[in-house]
Amino acid sequence: MHNDEQSAFNYSLYLLSFKDYSEYELRKKLAGKFDVCFIDSIIAKLKEKGLLSDKQYVEKIIRRYGNIKKYGYFKVEQELRKRGLKREVYENLLSEIYTEAKEEENALSIAFKRPRDKLGKYLLSRGYRSYIVRKVLALLEKE
């Protein structure tokens, strides 16, 4: 285990140069290599410099999984929890960025590309809320 705070800070910068991390994920990475006494001060420095922000990280995750990969609300929420983010950090952002209208739009775009016989199960498996799935299936039946 390294005992130098500067090397711990440099290592955290090295990690952040490749990808974004939540505070929880970065703490976990650093805990394996450095003394715990350094980690709090390093996290504080990174936040102060704007290099580590759970809010920005949450926004990126929501956009990636909600808008690009077109996952449903529950699947996006699961991805956020998996990364060690607390509900109070992401709850408001999730409902602001990934609205019901956006979720419905994503479900419809998937629906037009998939065979209809197993569409309901497919959408549910991708984390869409059941009332959104029913709404999309009803819209498709009208056509």
Number of helical segments with 4 or more residues? 9
Structural domains: how many: 2
- Tell me what portion of residues adopts beta-strand conformation: under 5%
The largest β sheet comes out as: none
Work out the radius of gyration: 20 Å
Q: In angstroms, what separates the terminal alpha carbons?
A: 64 Å
Helix content: over 70%
Mean pLDDT: 91
**Global outline:** elongated
Segments where pLDDT lies below 50 for 5+ residues?
none
Q: Encode the helix/strand succession as letters.
A: HHHHHHHHH
Structure classification:
mainly alpha
* DSSP, total strands: 0
Q: Can you describe this structure?
A:
This protein folds into two domains: 5-52, Arc Repressor Mutant, subunit A (Orthogonal Bundle), CATH 1.10.10; 55-142, no CATH class. It is 73% helix and 0% strand. It contains nine helices and no strands. It is elongated, with a radius of gyration of 20 Å. The termini are far apart.
Short overview:
By secondary structure, the chain is mainly α. The protein has helices spanning 5-18, 23-31, 36-48, 54-68, 73-82, 87-97, 100-111, 119-125, 130-142.
